[in-house]
Amino acid sequence: MTAKSPSSPRAAALVGPFASGKTSLLEAILLACGAIGRQGRIKDGSTVGDASPEARARAMSVEPNIATADYLGERWTFIDCPGSVEFQQDAYNALMAVDTAVVVCEPDPARAVMVAPLLKFLDEHKIPHILFVNKIDAAGTRLRETLEALQAVSDRPLILREIPIREGDAITGYVDLVSERAYKYRPGQTSDLIKIPDAIKGEESLARQEMLEHLADFDDHLMEELLEDVQPPTDEVYQDLSKDLTEDLIVPVFFGSAENDGGIHRLLKALRHDVPDAATSARRLGIAAEGAPLAQVFKTVHAAHTGKLSFARIWRGEFSDNQSLDGTRISGLYIMTGGTATKATKAGMGEVAAFGRLDTVQTGAVIGAAEPGMTAWPEPLKPLFAFAIEAEKKGDDVKMSGALTKLAEEDPSLSLEHAEFGELVLRGQGEIHLQVAIDRMKSRFNMQVNTRKPTVPYKEGIRKATTVHGRHKKQSGGHGQFGDVHLDITPLARGAGFHFIDKIVGGVVPRQYIPSVEQGVAEFLSHGPLGFPVVDLSVALTSGSFHAVDSSDMAFKTAARIAMTEGLPQCDPVLLEPILLVEISVPSDFTAKAQRIVSGRRGHILGYDGKDGWQGWDTVNAHLPQAEMDDLIVELRSLTMGVGTFSWTFDHLQELTGRVADKVVEARKEALERS
Ligand SMILES: Nc1nc2c(ncn2[C@@H]2O[C@H](COP(=O)(O)OP(=O)(O)O)[C@@H](O)[C@H]2O)c(=O)[nH]1
Ligand SMILES: [Mg+2]
């Protein structure tokens, strides 16, 4: 065997769909490494991972679980990533920090499509990855069918590295296709070497041949050997496996049971032999071998005791506690041994360390000097779901903003927007994603917040022109007030906005008062007769008069408002609703469903096409009213096994009339009366 001894620690991310068993696998791995004494269970809430109250409450990972342990004298950091699509950002970021990904999936072929987006990301970034088919203890299907379904969603060839040994319905061991040795599972220990059962000898040599043929696609020498019927030396096969994984040419496939400790040592040994070291991964990321110490942050956490922690992979050199970096000082350096932070004085190349109090360093940023030519950090995921939020206690708004800013720093797929109508809108990847953020506000910042649907930014327009006269005159002892204006109000084309035109001749309205007239008009337009901002019109000041003593800015502003209040209702105002351009992307099996969702939401389908670079996926382009977007992602996911998604941009405003419009105007009136 080519047991190379990497000089530096390696890192692997455990990724895959929700509930495929990643956190359980982390537990099994830590047990196999001797880092914990007994295996915790998800259902007992006793695992190393998912220890936060938000994760335990849902029996689901809502943040990465990071654990460092030694296997056969070599150091590994495992990053167990949340599988839920709503927490994907953390998984994508972690993948940028590792030498390999272990994609954990379930045997059910119907679920294979759930790993498609992840495999796309891995291939796009050429990140070596291994497939681990988990829950093999409960598998109802043949591994072949599972593999076929998975192959359909992977651009890279999947290569079975072992085949199962069955006793009745149960899988009790495996045959390694390289060494051609058979093993029987022994929970808690390395498997027992046994003889290859006669019954599967035929199947074994077929599977082995298949594996070799795949490898020969990338190795001419091996191809020659196969053509000449020469048995390739085992070392050559191991070398190919390691090289092809490193270059992301193949995806080796293993299986087992995280909960019942089957196949875990087998998986760990494959990692040990085949996974590239930090130097190789750094090269893949465009980081030169020589240079100053460099680490990259993949996760930021604001912890209660330690303050801000930046979890980073060290790609070059060594960092030490108290070291000064461009003016900021590392204040606390930690390694996650098992699941707990252990203080360290130094951390070196290959390690995953938490850096304390790097206040200006964001997720994705480089610690040390950034390097030209480094692979770009993935863009944050675009928001798909939103809540309007407010602090329960009036006056807590500033504190709330501060807490939310920290949470958004922890998770770049969470964002905060000061929206129209003074609303604070929290955006993210789904309802659970936002709910977890709200829960963290309470558990970590002691902030109770209220949520509701965000207000749709309706506008109003006009459909007719009119001419009005507004006069403001008051004579109440002493100084009076006098302003007098004539306005032409005219509708403009959609998208034109608001134009104010000064047509005064001969100084009938003195020049210094004209800005006040414009201001009076603009203020009126912020709340039209239907309660929304009025757009796409011009207002021309055509004439007026003034009084040498009593005229003032205030008086002209009031006159303008009087004119607008009278004039605008005569212009046949109409509600305008925002329409978004939405691109939905789904596996083609679900395209018809996606189209039905659009029609069901007053949408208009513009067309559909194959998704660029995504075999077997379609995009559906549509115009959808923003008012219908609220739970679009919820419905889309529920109809597409969670993988359907969309992107959106504002497109145009469209007239809305009839019952739907009446309801909107009524609701707005009530809201305005309340506030
Ligand atoms: N039968 C069986 N169940 C498993 C296995 N591994 C995990 N599970 C169960 O699958 C569920 C999800 O496990 P978890 O580790 O939280 O999955 P994650 O979402 O991928 O982290 C839990 O109920 C586990 O008990 C396994 O090997 N066999
Ligand atoms: Mg998990």
Please give a handful of descriptors for the protein shown.
675 residues, alpha+beta, Elongation Factor Tu (Ef-tu), domain 3, Alpha-Beta Plaits, 5 domains, seven-stranded mixed beta sheet, six-stranded antiparallel beta sheet, 17 helices, 34 strands, elongated, binds guanosine-5'-diphosphate, binds magnesium ion
Can you give a write-up of this model?
The longest helix is centred in the last third of the chain and has 17 residues, at 658-674. The N and C termini lie far apart (74 Å). The chain has 17 helices and 34 strands. It has 5 domains: 10-281, Rossmann fold (3-Layer(aba) Sandwich); 293-368, Elongation Factor Tu (Ef-tu), domain 3, CATH 2.40.30.10; 385-452, Elongation Factor G (Translational Gtpase), domain 3 (Alpha-Beta Plaits, 2-Layer Sandwich), CATH 3.30.70; 460-571, Ribosomal Protein S5, domain 2 (2-Layer Sandwich), CATH 3.30.230.10; 576-671, Alpha-Beta Plaits (2-Layer Sandwich). 45% of the residues are buried. Bound molecules: guanosine-5'-diphosphate and magnesium ion. Magnesium ion (MG) binds at residues 22-23, 50, 61, 80, 83.
How widely separated are the two ends?
Answer: 74 Å
Work out the helix count.
17
Main sheet summary = 7 strands, mixed
Bound molecules: guanosine-5'-diphosphate, magnesium ion
Helix-strand category = alpha+beta
Hey, roughly how much beta strand do the residues contain?
25-35%
Q: Which shape, going by the Cα principal axes?
A: elongated
Please give the share of residues in helix. Answer: 25-40%
Oligomer: single chain
Overall mean pLDDT stands at 93
What is the name of the CATH class of the largest domain?
A: Alpha Beta
CATH A-level architecture of the largest domain: 3-Layer(aba) Sandwich
Rounded to the nearest angstrom, the radius of gyration is 32 Å
Total domain count: 5
Instruction: Return the CATH topology of the largest domain.
Output: Rossmann fold
Taking pLDDT < 50 over at least 5 consecutive residues as the criterion, the unreliable ranges are none
Give the tally of β-strands. Answer: 34
The largest beta-sheet arranges its strands as 2-3-1-4-5-11-6
Q: CATH superfamily of the largest domain, please?
A: P-loop containing nucleotide triphosphate hydrolases
